[in-house]
Amino acid sequence: MLDTATSAPTIRGMYIDGNWVPAARTFDDLNPSDNSLYARIPDGSPEDVRRAIDAARAAFPAWAGLAFHERAHYLLKIAEVWDRRQSDFIAAAMAEGGGWFGKGAFEAGYVAEVFRSASALCYQNTGEVLPSEHHKFMMALRVPLGVVSVISPWNMPGILTSRGFAAALAAGNTVVLKPSEDTPYAGGLYFAEILEEAGIPKGVFNVVTCSRESVGAVGDELIENPVVKAVSFTGSTAVGRHIAAKCGAHLKKACVELGGKDSMIILEDADLDHAAKAANFGSFMHQGQVCMSTEKILVQESVYDTFMKKFLARAAKLKTGHTRDKDNILGPLVNTRQAQRVKALIDDALAKGATAEIGGKAWDNFVEPTVLTNVNSTMDIWHDETFGPVVIVVPFRTEEEAIALNNDTEYGLTAAIMSRDEARALRIAEQVETGICHVNCQNINDEPHVPFGGVKASGVGRYGGRWSLDAFTELRWITLDRGGRHFPPAF
To answer: Is 257 one of the annotated active-site residues of the chain?
Structure first.
C-alpha cells in the first residue's frame, strides 16, 4: 500500500500462496530523480521461487477448472480495483520509475483495459471441429499449460507487466511474476496488492522480487524449474536471447518481446506539422525508454530542411528534471548505469563526426532531448538500441533508399510512415521488416486486443487479444470414433 503522506509504499513482503512473505534480506529501491531511497524490497532467492512455483502448481487444477465466466469475472474485478487505485500507481510510476506525471496517468488509464480485454478471451472459441476422412468426430482444443513464469521490465511497469500475465490467467494458467529490480513495487508488489484485493484465489498469482545480484539464480529457477511450462518476458534483446535459448533447451514455450531500433519515414508529401509533433512524441516520450520509441527519423531530401525547423522547435521546448515538477516532461533515466550508457553513445557519435542539433548534455541520471545528424554506420548509435532521449535524423532520396535504411538493423519491432498518399504508404509498409507499422502516426502505439510483437531480434510470439492464446495454451487433437474406421483384414 502507498503511504499518501510520503508517497512511499509499505512493503509487506513477497506475495506467495496468498500470503505476504519476508525474504532473508532486502535491497534498496531508489528514486532515479535523486537516487534517494524509495523502498526496501525483499531480495528473494531460488528457494522462494520454488515455493511460489509449488503454490502455483497446487492452485492450477481449481483455477483451470473454473467455469470460463468465473475467470472472466475475476479479471473484471481486477480492472475495477485497478481503476479505483489509479492515483497510487501514478505516484509509484513517478517516484520509483522516473516517469513524467502524464506518462504515469496514461499507464494507469490503460492497464484496466488489459484485464477487460483478457476477460473477453474467456468467452472466445477455444477449439474447432475438424473434418475426418474416417467420419470421426474430431476436435482441436486449446488447454491451459499450467504454471507460467512472467519476467517484466521497468520502463512500462503497469502495461508491460499486466500484458505479460492477464491472458495467461484468462486461459486458466497460474502465474509466478518476477518484476524488474528497478521497479519491483510498481511492476510487481503493487499488482499483488491489486489482485489480493480483487479476491484472486491463493496461489493463482505470486510475486517474487530480487536484487540485481540475485537475478541470475532467481531467473534460472523461473525458467528451468520443470513445473514451469512457459515463460513470458519483455525486456532487452540480450536477455531475451538468453531466456529463449534456455526455454528451447528445456522445450518450453517462450513469448519474448524485445528491443527495437525503430524508424519513422517522412515522405515529401507528408503533413509536416503533424509529422513534427508525432516525431517529438515518438522520440522523447518517457525519455525514449520505450521499445517502440522512434530512434531514427528518415526524411525525404526535398522536405528535410522544412521538417527539421518544425521538429527542432518542438523538441527544444521539452524540459528535463525531477519528476516532482510536472512541467518537466522528461524525467531521469531509470538508473545511473543507463544514463552513462546513453551518454557514451552520444559521445561516440560526436567523436566520429555527428552533429548535435540540440541537446547532448547529461548530468546525474538525466540526459537532455538530443537530436543527432550526420550519423553513419560506423557509429555505435546507428546499430545499438539507445533507450534514451536521443534520435537520429537522416535524409533520403528515394522510397527504395528509405526502405533500405529502415531495414538496416537486426531489430524489427515498429515502423512509422508519414504520407498523404495512403496507397504509397501502404506499399512501403509491406516492405519494411517489422512486426508493426503505423501509417500517419508515430511508432509508440498499443491497444490491448491487437497482435503486438516484432520480427528479427525484436522477439518471438505475440501479445494481445486472441493471439495471446498461442503463447499460453497447448493445442490438443481429440477424436471420437463412431464405428466408421476400418482396419486391414489381417488385423
So the answer is: yes
| Nearest alpha carbon to residue 396 among 270, 482, 207 | 270
What pLDDT score does 5 carry?
Answer: 45
DSSP bridge partners of 380: none
Nearest Cα neighbor of 333 from 32, 103, 95 is 32
Catalytic residue among 291, 295, 368, 385: 291
- CB count in 10 Å sphere of residue 189: 28
- Smallest CA-to-CA distance from 94 within 103, 86, 85 is with 103
Query: Tens digit of pLDDT for each residue in 311-354?
Result: 999 999 999 999 999 999 999 999 999 999 999 999 999 999 99
Which helix (H) or strand (E) segment is 283 a member of?
helix 272-284
The whole-chain average pLDDT of the chain stands at 96
Strand order in the sheet with 436-439: 355-358, 370-373, 390-396, 294-300, 262-266, 414-418, 436-439
Is residue 441 part of the annotated active site? The answer reads: no
What's the CA angle centered on 66, arms 60 and 70, to 5 degrees? 125
Residue 271's Cα: distance from chain center in Å?
Answer: 30
Own/partner contacts of 300-309, CB < 8 Å, gap of 24 or more, are 300/266, 300/267, 300/268, 300/395, 300/396, 300/397, 300/402, 301/395, 301/396, 301/397, 302/268, 303/266, 303/268, 303/270, 303/272, 304/395, 306/272, 307/266, 307/272, 307/275, 307/276, 308/357, 308/393
What is the distance of C-alpha 243 from the center of its chain?
15
Reported as a single tens digit per residue, the pLDDT across 240-261 is: 999 999 999 999 999 999 999 9
Give the whole-angstrom CA distance, residue 172 versus residue 177.
Answer: 16
* pLDDT tier at 361, thresholds 50, 70, 90: very high
Per the listing, cell 485497478 goes with 82
Q: Are 442 and 294 in contact (CB under 8 A)?
A: yes
Percent of the chain clearing pLDDT 70 (strictly above): 99
CA pair distance 420, 29, nearest whole angstrom: 47
The pLDDT of residue 484 is 76
Q: Please give the average per-residue pLDDT across 230-240, as a whole number.
A: 96
| C-alpha distances out from residue 79 to 74, 158, 196, Å | 9, 12, 12
Cell for 251? Answer: 522445450
Q: pTM (2 decimals)?
A: 0.95
pLDDT for the residue numbered 174: 98
Residue positions counted in the chain: 491
Pick the catalytic residue: 96, 113, 221, 257?
Answer: 257
User: Rounded distance, CA 84 to CA 82, Å?
Assistant: 5
Nearest to 227 by CA among 261, 209, 252: 252
State the Cα–Cα distance between residues 471 and 465, nearest whole angstrom.
11
